[in-house]
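For consistency, the fold was encoded as tokens, which produced the following:
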Amino acid sequence: MQNSGARYLTAGIVATVCALATLKLFGVAEAATCAAAIERAAAKAGTPHSILQAIGTVESSGHPWAVNDAGRSYVFNSRAEAFAFLQERIEQGRRNLDIGCLQVNWRWHGDQLGSPEAALDPVSNALYAASYLRSLYDALGSWSAAVGAYHSRSPDRAEGYRCRVAKVLRPELSIVNCQ
């Protein structure tokens, strides 16, 4: 007969394994990968972690293998699948590709990222995005303006994006001029 301590230990181990499997099944492990990369990148670049994390939520829901091809979103089960998709699209001459945790655009930032592999790497993706956001802040003088410009330099598109990020940051608030 098993003692109650061993029974509880076994139940705890089984519950932990089941919880981890469930998290993996639903992509939480991937989201944790993005979250850790974003936290590290924000600290290194001197950007507010909460803002960078909110951008990641808006952009990819925290999924490192997310790719947007000219407005159509794809989320892959593995880095290899996402890479194969990117390679195919780039070989076809497609450039309007948003890649990874923070959906860095290949057309505008591919030269700085260096390769599709780097763009898909959560740490490289987050480090580049954080430094880019910081450069926008330095140029524009406010985090709100930097967030808008992260998405677009078009005032209307930037404002809509700024509102989406603000709502992730503070969902309980009614934000002025945001629908």
In short: The chain has one domain: 4-169. Residues 4-169 form a domain with the Lysozyme fold (CATH 1.10.530).
